[in-house]
Design goal:
Radius of gyration: 26 Å
Strand content: under 5%
Shape: flat
Length: 89
Amino acid sequence: MAKTKRTPKGIDAGFAYNPGKAYMNPNTVPPLPAGYAAVLEARGLTWPTGVVTVTPRKPPPRKLTTADLLPSDADADTCARQFCNAFIH
């Protein structure tokens, strides 16, 4: 149930609440009082086992060359374009 807090007329709620939580509250399923283990037990199920997690490989680091460096007087558009191109190519 939502908690109501009175504020004087013209005063914003400010930092007295979490706006994201307040926005999502009507659409959020409340936590299970007994936890997920009780639900699995009631259904005759067990926690899954044998789940394999895979850590993606990171690309090896590469050395920067002088061609990768921007001149100190480069404008913001040039900097942004070169930055984005590093991820595309």
